[in-house]
Hints:
Helix content: 40-55%
Order of helices and strands: HHHHHEHEEEHHHEHHHEHEHHHHHHH
Strand order of the largest sheet: 4-5-6-1-7
Radius of gyration: 24 Å
Number of helices: 20
Strand content: 5-15%
CATH class of the largest domain: Alpha Beta
Number of strands: 7
Distance between the termini: 33 Å
Amino acid sequence: xxxxxxxxxxxxxxxxxxxxxxxxxxxxxxxxxxxxxxxxxxxxxxxxxxxxxxxxxxxxxxxxxxxxxxxxxxxxxxxxxxxxxxxxxxxxxxxxxxxxxxxxxxxxxxxxxxxxxxxxxxxxxxxxxxxxxxxxxxxxxxxxxxxxxxxxxxxxxxxxxxxxxxxxxxxxxxxxxxxxxxxxxxxxxxxxxxxxxxxxxxxxxxxxxxxxxxxxxxxxxxxxxxxxxxxxxxxxxxxxxxxxxxxxxxxxxxxxxxxxxxxxxxxxxxxxxxxxxxxxxxxxxxxxxxxxxxxxxxxxxxxxxxxxxxxxxxxxxxxxxxxxxxxxxxxxxxxxxxxxxxxxxxxxxxxxxxxxxxxxxxxxxxxxxxxxxxxxxxxxxxxxxxxxxxxxxxxxxxxxxxxxxxxxxxxxxxxxxxxxxxxxxxxx
Length: 428
């Protein structure tokens, strides 16, 4: 235990490992692919397989490091509220579901928004995996025998947005995580085998088990699946005559129905009543919809709202980190050189979406190899955009335009003009 820690001798918190600063976290998250020693003598087919390692490259951005702090604060604080040194905490768990743990304040909520491909899901996944997921305690204060602590669970909200489907996803994720510790059949095998299922009851069953194992943080990704998002024609009719600088979030999301209202209530109770930290992530349309519903429901404590933005051509992280990393991984004898023209072209063809930047880089190499030429040209990037990236180019053009009317054509490219932090009860 670190004598400087504000949490004291809390075994749940100590098991998470030391608190890391941003420099330490950045080093832990950095992942760069190896390069072959002699590119010129490698056949093109072999070079392609080296090139595919770029998909595993991870260069942590400053917003990811801020997110790391928020998740760490939320998780550790949730355990500070549920210390095993408190007999009341154990008493409450043993008397489920009538008595709830006595919390000084709700657990923290972290929200994360970004367009598809900006790396939000990968960031949360990598950060959570910095902690052990299942921690076995041989002894705990006020408890006889061994006990398993579950530090985190991460799932995607199913496309249906129904309670029964979310409960199934949570139960299966729990059983997978606990598989090495199973004695007999998985914990939720009987419930999942039933033909007739009732979603709220399944969610409550899962929550009770998660509480008894002191779940630290629950991550719900693809939060937009909770909502019946409007179609393009519905959005146009609802916002007709209200577009432009003066538009307001309510013009888009007023009356937007959640698939099942009890789902939102249950999610809120995780942090508000049971002390588990919560991380919600999704695309701007989903987070905006959630913001409108939170604004009319109970307020909850938030520990951070993070936006994963596409790169801009003048971003220091793009020109100083990401682009140089791409340039180092050229598998041709005559590579492209750093230039303003190259930087502008890459942003124009990908709207600065990191996943598309890597995809375009790989596509350009394949075009060069098909040309049987051992050099990379700007024209190869343009050809890659017209072929491999052709299906996403309309969305890229909409993002580049910054025009809400064009962006409305794509569900996951809705304008992100509204600050979720205020809706969660903590205006900046």
